[in-house]
Each structure stands twice: as structure tokens, then as C-alpha cells.
Amino acid sequence: MNARRGSILNQLLRELPAGYVVDTEWLRALGVSASSVRDYVERHWLERLAPRLYGRDAEREGQGVRWEAALLSLQNLLGEPIHVGGLTALELAGYWQYAILGRRQLWIYSDSRRARSILERLSMTADPSLRSRKLFGGPELGVETRPLDLVTTTLGPATSSGSDAPTHNQMLRVSSLERAILEVLDEVPRTVGFEHAAQLFEGLTTLRPKLTSSLLESCRSVKAKRLFLYFAGQHSYAWVRAIKRTEIDLGSGKRQIVAGGRLDPEYNITVPAEGRPAQPRAAR
Known about the structure:
By secondary structure, this protein is of the alpha+beta class. The chain folds into 3 domains: 1-58; 63-175, no CATH class; 182-271, no CATH class. Helix content is 33%, strand content 16%. It has helices spanning 3-15, 24-30, 34-42, 67-77, 86-92, 113-121, 177-185, 194-202, 209-218, 222-232; strands at 21-23, 47-50, 53-55, 60-61, 64-65, 83-84, 105-109, 127-131, 143-149, 154-155, 171-175, 262-264, 269-271. A 3-stranded antiparallel β-sheet has the order 1-3-2. Strands 6-7-8 form a 3-stranded mixed β-sheet. Strand 12 (262-264) and strand 13 form a beta hairpin. The radius of gyration is 22 Å and the shape is elongated. Mean pLDDT is 89; it is low at 162-166 and 275-284.
């Protein structure tokens, strides 16, 4: 092996953490030729994970690459505009008691063709469910950068992009609670049931009023905004009083949320006929 190829290999081993995933485009940008990729695979310095996807010392659980490593790779190595949101963001924030049973479905938001292509080809420990980032006028509004503990799969506190972090490659882009609940409400009742949404909302005692207001103003889903305000009206949380409804565009006309339900006259949405659902457990 000549000096240049040796230098490229050393750089590859430095920049590709064990367990992470890259594509041929990333390898080419690093200076790794197609023939070198084949050589590295034969020598077990690289592992072929899927067509045009490679990893190093991939940590596998079952038959797939860890979903956490795959998402961190897309965000931090490949630089793709992608974040984890909706139910997955709420679960990572501690709302596990309301998780849907069965194989995990990852709520992933991205309009990147490259990211979508990689997720479609890669076998992971959870099933990616891709969604557009166009729900809000600002695609990054309410998306936070938080350290992800790969041992416990728990998130640390949000940090700014310029802040020191334990390891840059372990920083996950994830929806804040304020954004995640609106992402969930946008899918009621198609993906999430009305009562499930009510249970999730029950635990949102500490939302930030300024960010919540900005997200409600930026949200393009009339249904999600009406549901949010309807659920907020069922609680006496301090942040609820700071929301200015007059600054939120709630559209016009009626929205059917619950088939056979009653029409709530304030928000023009159908809700369960008996009124508010039975009291759900508070999130802990």
C-alpha cells in the first residue's frame, strides 16, 4: 500500500466511527476509490451493509444496524437535513408509557432524496416512517440538537451548535416537545388515535410559551392547531395562559376528527360524544 492510500485509510478510520454508516458518495469525497472500497471490504476494514452503503465494525442487533447510529450518520457524517420527531421524539423525551406496542416505528422528517434512498436500502433495528418537513413554515423551528447516550438511548439537554459536546457524532437533531406534539396532532386520527393524543398532551406541563406560540403561528395544519388549542383548554397549565389565540390562523369550516362525535363549537372539530376522554395517566 502506497503512502497516499495509507493516509486515506487512516483518515477513513478516524472519521468513520465504529457502528456508523456512510455511502459511496461520502467515501469518494474522502478520496476512497471504488477499487479501494473493494479492497477494504476484502480486508474487513469496511463492511458492505447494503447496495452502496458501508460501515465499520457495525454493531448489530438482530438483523439490522442500530437505528440510532444510522440517524446520527445521516445527520453528522453525511450532513443531511433530517430530524427525529413526532411520537419518536416524545418517547426519547421520556414518554415511553404511551409508546405503541410492537416493532418500533421511527418518525423521521426529511425531504432529502439521498436520506430517503439510504433509509429505504438499509436494514435497521426499527422501521423508518418518513415524513416531509413542510408541516411548518420554518423547517428547523423547534428542532433541537441534543446529545444521545448510545448505551441508554436517552437524550441530554439541548445545546446550541457552537457548544461543546461529548462527541459531535453523538448529537441528535430531534423535535422539541412543542414541535413533536404538533407533529403528532397532525396525524390524528390517521396514525394516532384521539385518546392517545389526549394522553400525550396530559403530560406536557412545562412547554415554553414563546416557542409554542411561534410553532402554532408557523404550523400549516389547521387541524393540528385546533386540536392543540382544544386540548390546551382542558388544562390549567401556566404556559396555556400565555398563548395568544388571536395571532393563530385557525382557518374556516369544520374538521371531522372523531367519526360520530359531537361538534366542539369553539374550534369546529368533532370530539368524542361524551366530551373529554376519560382521564389519562399523567406522564412521569
